Amino acid sequence: MHSYVKKADAIGTMKLIILNDYDQVGEWAAKYIRNKILRFNPGPGRFFTLGLPTGGTPLGCYKKLIEFYKEGELSFQYVKTFNMDEYVGIPRNHPESYHSFMWNNFFKHIDIKSENTHILDGNAADLVQECDSFEEKIKAAGGIDLFVGGIGPDGHIAFNEPGSSLLSRTRVKTLAQDTILANARFFDGDMAKVPTMALTVGVATVMDAREVMILITGAHKAFALYKAIEEGVNHMWTVSAFQQHPQTVFVCDEDATLELRVKTVKYFKGMMHVHNKLVEPLASK
Amino acid sequence: MPSNKSVSDAPITQFVNCRILREHKLQREDLWVREGKILDPEKLFFDEKGSADQRVDCKGHIIAPGFIDVQINGGYGIDFSQATDYVKGGVSLVAKKILEHGVTSFLPTLVTSPPDIYHKVLPKVQVQSGGMQGAGVLGFHLEGPFISLEKKGAHPEEYLRSFLSDGMSDLIETYGTLDNVAMVTLAPELPNSQTVVRELTQRGITVSLGHSVANLSQAENAVQHGASFITHLFNAMLPFHHRDPGIVGLLTSDQVPQSRTVFYGMIADGIHTNPAALRIAHRAHPKGLVLVTDAIAAMGLPPGRHTLGQQVIEIQGLHAYVAGTKTLCGSIATMDMCVRHFKQASGCTVEESLEAASLHPAQLLGISHAKGVLDYGADADLVLLDDSLSIRATYIAGQEVWRK
């Protein structure tokens, strides 16, 4: 690898990766995570710590990571994971719970150990205590090396919906009416069954990570991407907080760039030949 | 968060690289087993923080629930209805041998016999779980002697009986005991049979209709009293007639209560049932089809002449003839062969063919919470098959009991 790439990777500059479509976003993100883990060279007593999202956007990335594991390129034996959020009050084995999501779409396919995975317990007797201890666990794990996230059309990261403090930590959050409505389709269309609260990491919890990667796909997220990177830091678009993070990479598809300036898109597309080196297979194994 | 780590320290086996039959579909899933039962790995992962102690690579093969044969008269030279002195050993021998056909539980079946045979044989064989020693015995299937003279088939005429005033006392007098009895085949047109059907059903014994000249309304009446099975459909019953379809009509009857399913046994060996008849039954009532071998003592014996009891038989290919004739003397089908033939003849899916030998008989016997399924908590009685549906290995309670 050329030295300037290493430098680009290290200095405090936001990266915007623009790819053709959803599949390429998942693949690029998975390769990036793979390379991060491999370069870290985890082992006994040396764990790579990964923050993880749920939802449709990261699915393609999980599929690719599973492929890398099955092909023997990657092991999760010495990886610790922390999930962003979980609903309050639905059974852990409910098909829409984030426990179920992580189990079915990722954990059951790889060699990660149960004790190294962490998902907030939305059925804990004391929810505040559960949130506080989650922060403690992240600290005890030495902080998060790479936090991967997605965003909502309103620019929320995890369940930090518009108006969330950019200094927020892990806490109980009442869901926005929009989110509840959007979720109704997963709960037999019955509003009474849709969870109205969730536990979520705060914006500051994610900000603490050494590196943040946000995946954004689809035209419906285009405005949120514009607000995230071309306007100022704003608590109504919580993802914009990462403008102040020294190491953030946004990975998006063409559709998600619809609201961006041509200049912005051209600038980052011009950087792709450099950024793509970050996901090339590592030579030494 | 409550920890369930104390649930069990027993070793956990994870079958990987397999397609498992669950919820009527072959699914690319691993199968987890602990203490002989199928385990929910998600619960294990999140609640117990547990993981597998041992992995079994299934090399892409299919895992289905172990097969259940509800009608098998013997095999390997043993006739359950004859071997009065050696019956326990005989059942054990067959139980061991049929593991290679994927059968993990069965009902040893006795054809019409004199009371003293029942009195001697029934107490000697207990309901028992399967294991290394062989397939599990779920109880006896008593086919006769309360059947029709006109449709006696190969059953000896002199021992046929009917129900006198109080049907149950005749039944008890004949059989001696109903312990270890799982199924009784009777002819519902016999007077007083209704009381018997009701009483047997209440005792948890499955009543099957067969060797009978019953018309459809008699058959429906028996079903309304609790009967739930038809013994070897088409064989030993009135042929289908459009104005009175007889017992066969139960497959599409509207008099069967909504919550109930009538099941029917099929000898799908390509010899005892014409493939077209098999297809008619399957298309009319796919959820009720139960594959049975109805195998006789000659099953499992090599080609050539054998003396079985008073009879000399000759085995040629898949046929067993009375020696020197072309008269069939019974089925020598094995369960795995029936599964393959059924799939090929009916054009059904792999899933349907496997469920006809596992899920359906388990539902029939009312044990589908534990057997015939790969649901969490069910017994880990498994059969490993390749894509041609040949048996590669058989497991009972998670333990390998046979391998090719």
Automatic annotation (TrEMBL), chain A:
Lineage of the species this protein comes from: Eukaryota, Metazoa, Chordata, Craniata, Vertebrata
Function: Catalyzes the reversible conversion of alpha-D-glucosamine 6-phosphate (GlcN-6P) into beta-D-fructose 6-phosphate (Fru-6P) and ammonium ion, a regulatory reaction step in de novo uridine diphosphate-N-acetyl-alpha-D-glucosamine (UDP-GlcNAc) biosynthesis via hexosamine pathway. Deamination is coupled to aldo-keto isomerization mediating the metabolic flux from UDP-GlcNAc toward Fru-6P. At high ammonium level can drive amination and isomerization of Fru-6P toward hexosamines and UDP-GlcNAc synthesis.
Keyword Coiled coil (UniProt): no
Species in which this protein is naturally found: Umbra pygmaea
Cell location: Cytoplasm
Protein name: Glucosamine-6-phosphate isomerase
Gene3D superfamilies to which the protein is assigned, alphabetical: 3.40.50.1360
Enzyme class: hydrolase
Family statement: Belongs to the glucosamine/galactosamine-6-phosphate isomerase family.
Catalyzed chemical reaction(s): alpha-D-glucosamine 6-phosphate + H2O = beta-D-fructose 6-phosphate + NH4(+)
GO molecular function: glucosamine-6-phosphate deaminase activity
TrEMBL record, chain B:
SUPFAM superfamilies per record: Composite domain of metallo-dependent hydrolases, Metallo-dependent hydrolases
Cofactor-binding details, from the entry: Binds 1 divalent metal cation per subunit.
Cofactor: a divalent metal cation
Positions of the catalytic residues: 294 (proton donor/acceptor)
Domain (Amidohydrolase-related) ranges: 62-401
Gene Ontology molecular functions: metal ion binding; N-acetylglucosamine-6-phosphate deacetylase activity
GO biological process: N-acetylneuraminate catabolic process; negative regulation of UDP-N-acetylglucosamine biosynthetic process
Keyword presence, Ion transport: no
Protein name, as recorded: N-acetylglucosamine-6-phosphate deacetylase
Organism of this sequence: Umbra pygmaea (Eastern mudminnow)
